[in-house]
Amino acid sequence: MASHLLPTLLLLLALAVSWSAAGRGATSPYLRPLPRETLSAPLADDADGATPPAVHISMVGTNRVRVRWITEDDAPVTVDYRLQEGMYGELSTGSTSTNTSPHFTHSIYYYRCSGNPAREFSFKTPPASLPTKFVVIGDLGQTGWTNSTLNHISQSNYDTLLLPGDLSYADLNQPSWDSYARLVEPLASSRPWMVTEGNHEIETIPLIESTPFKPYNARYHMPYEESASPSNLFYSFDAAGGAVHVLMLGSYTDFDASSDQFKWLQADLAKLNRSKTKWLFALIHAPWYNSNKAHQGDGEDMRKAMEETLYAAHVDAIFAVHVHAYERFASMYNGKKDQCGPLHITIGDGGNREGLAKKYIDPQPSISLFREASFGHGQLQVSNDTHALWSWHRNDDDEAVVVDSVWIASLLSNPACQKKN
After folding, report:
1. pLDDT tens profile 132-159
2. What is the mean pLDDT of the chain?
3. SS3 153
4. pTM
5. C-alpha to C-alpha distances, 205 to 77, 138, 202, 211, nearest whole angstrom
6. pLDDT of residue 114
7. Any catalytic annotation for residue 295?
8. Span 192-213, mean pLDDT?
9. Which residues pair with 391 in a beta bridge?
10. Rounded to the nearest 5 degrees, what angle is found at the Cα of 337, between the Cα atoms of 332 and 342?
11. Residue 233: which of 299, 280, 302, 164 has the closest Cα?
12. Which helix (DSSP H) or strand (DSSP E) does residue 416 occupy?
């Protein structure tokens, strides 16, 4: 039987600048290794059509997670779970129309899908207060370098992973989605993965399939309803008990002033209580600032439409991918350095099959503080209400090498920025 995505689990399980860097305005001379082969993650030898592979979880509100998986055959849409010390005794049932929400506490939970005892998973619930740690990656794909990235991420004691687009690089080859899901399952089943769409998720065929994002929307149901978004392509969520608010914005759906996304963004920001929400981050696919020769100007229309809104809201940092390299910019607004603007970081270097974007604009613009065309991933440790540590970890060496880092002071803690409102 051809593999298909069953409507298996929209299941809600309740849970509860100053800077230091490798160089100011630096372009790394690092010599990059050769590309690696594309991987294919097969089903286990003992798997049958009802065995639940490709398990992954995502956050839904501050105290719940959604568990999803794929089976070839019909299988019970159930999850049973237990605490670290204890026997299986809890059962939750979900479907495309029904959700259940048992209350979880901040701990480690073990769980099984579809009542299948052959595969047991575990996840750690995110913390209910600061500190909290995010991993940020993009343009992940499924190559040997992807595997290196995933291995390094697995060594990080992170709480939530953020991936703003270009996940599987399936590009209409649906079995590649299945392979990708199996490849990332060890990580995606144990920590929430919060994702948005990139250009490789569009997947349309002229005259045959005109509706974009069908496989992506079927496989990655994000908590857009909970943030009052009309679309799975853009949403927001809270972390650390609401101390952190994350905007997951869509670069490949409408974003001008008359669009649903723009209207939703304004409404979402208007709801924030900044006496409680100390940090505000945004993720997009195509970067608004870019000194790489690849994808020049791809994010410019979105920047013109949304930058003023995010600046007025005191967004602390904007993370983008799309360009297959790493670059950190100054705090920016309207093309210039601005201490009250968001820090801009491009991190589209997860391990894609298309290779690295090695050609940069020369001379390096003054707004670009560090850039390197290497595979890697980022870590954002939000330590307290006022300071967070960003670090970029080069993975090319098959070792976790921290190459760039910066302490970020929240804009809410900068009196000069408060005077602007």
Report:
1. 999 999 999 999 999 999 999 999 999 9
2. 85
3. helix
4. 0.84
5. 32, 24, 10, 9
6. 72
7. yes
8. 96
9. 379, 405
10. 25
11. 164
12. helix 415-418
pLDDT at site 12: 33
Per the CB < 8 A criterion, the answer to whether 371 and 291 are in contact is yes
pLDDT tens digits along 318-367: 999 999 999 999 999 999 999 999 999 999 999 999 999 999 999 999 99
Asked whether the beta carbons of 69 and 1 are under 8 A apart, the reply is: no
Helices within 259-320 (DSSP H only): 260-270, 300-312
Q: Nearest 5 degrees, angle CA 238-CA 241-CA 246? A: 20
C-beta of residue 222 within 8 angstroms of C-beta of residue 248: yes
How much of the chain, in percent, has pLDDT values that exceed 90?
67
Q: Mark residue 335 as left, alpha or beta (left: phi above 0; alpha: psi -120 to 50; beta: remaining).
A: left
Identity of the amino acid at 284:
I
Outline where DSSP puts E strands in 212-309. Answer: 235-239, 244-248, 279-283
In eight-state DSSP terms, residue 209 is: B
3-class DSSP state of 287:
coil
**What is the torsion angle, in degrees rounded to the nearest 10, for the CA atoms of residue 152, residue 157, residue 158 and residue 161?**
30
Phi, then psi, of 153 in degrees rounded to 5: -60, -35
Query: Which whole-number Å values give the CA distances from 299 to 27, 100, 288, 347, 372, in the listed order?
Result: 22, 39, 5, 14, 20
pLDDT at 92 over 80: no
- pLDDT attached to residue 389: 98
- Please give the distance of CA 114 from its chain centroid, rounded to a whole number: 27
Out of 152, 285, 295, 322, which one is annotated catalytic? 295
- For residue 139 the two structure tokens come to 């343009």
Query: Looking at this protein, which amino acid is placed at residue 29?
Result: P
